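For the sake of transparency, this paper describes our internal protein records without simplification. Because each token names a local backbone shape, the row as a whole describes the fold. One such record is reproduced below, unchanged from the form in which we store it.
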Amino acid sequence: MKFGIIGAGMIGHFHAKAITAMTGGELQSVFDLRQKAADKLASEYGAKGYSNIEEFLADPELEIVTIGTPSGAHLDPALASLNAGKHVICEKPLEITLERIDQITAAAAANKVTVAAVLNRRFHPGMDAFKKAADEGRFGKLTSASCYVKWYRDQAYYDSAAWRGTWALDGGGALMNQSIHTIDALIYLAGPVKSVQANTACLAHTDIEVEDIAVAIVEFENGARGVIEGSTCTWSKDGHPARVQLAGTEGSVFLADETFELWDFMEEKPEDAEIKSTLMKGQEAGLGANDPSAINFYQHQRNFEEVVQAIAEGREPTTSAAEARKPVAVIRAIYDSAHNGGAKVSL
């Protein structure tokens, strides 16, 4: 399928790399309000650059549009693309409010096209193994489910673009921008959230509207309890990995980025030996923990390939709008709780 990219910034470059490497896709075009930026990215991959979105979307060969604009600026390009009959794959968060996500979902249904999100941290062998164990009930009664994103962004990161650290375009801080993939992974593995109680603060940055640290107590529908912690003010030399930790009456698994710190079940299975020999944690630096440009693109590649396969099979992708809505709902509930003195907020 032929892809077009909206947004020629850092994320656009990730998308171009993933599209070029993937099976079933090729880069057709790039749109950016800055013609030079669009042309620069497009020329690197033999594509065409546009600064007029109507002309970009009028291309009859264009089939799928990926969106890499700031978080709070996903709605308009998504609606334009869907209304032009194009499938859409949109960066996280799909949008920063549930109302906007629902608008995007409705437009996709009305135009009989697919909308999917980039939830790339679902697409690696460690997550495949973790999800299989969770789905098979290997934890017994799940009692504890938590995630921790203790990352660092310096002041220059927030100063580098006027939209960073704003409610209008970032949609939030350490949770909505940096932690959303890990929160998505937690929900994907542990199931729906019932309620949250939270506290947020901005401790280490200036001239931003949003949090650089947040902590929430979480109750899941299945009864498990846990913690969601997200930060952009926790420095370390190599960067802390993003962690997802599940434990129950019959097993415990701690995932750090793409490898395991712990894989331990009361009832062992033959595949456990291979997991322990190939997917256990070494001394890897946290992926994107200190430098957002250090994130690998192969997870985007797998994400895009899954969406193309879903379109071909006439089914919803695994990163559908309904799935992308879930972590945004949890994050918005955390913000509501924090802004109301830590009151319990039900989902």
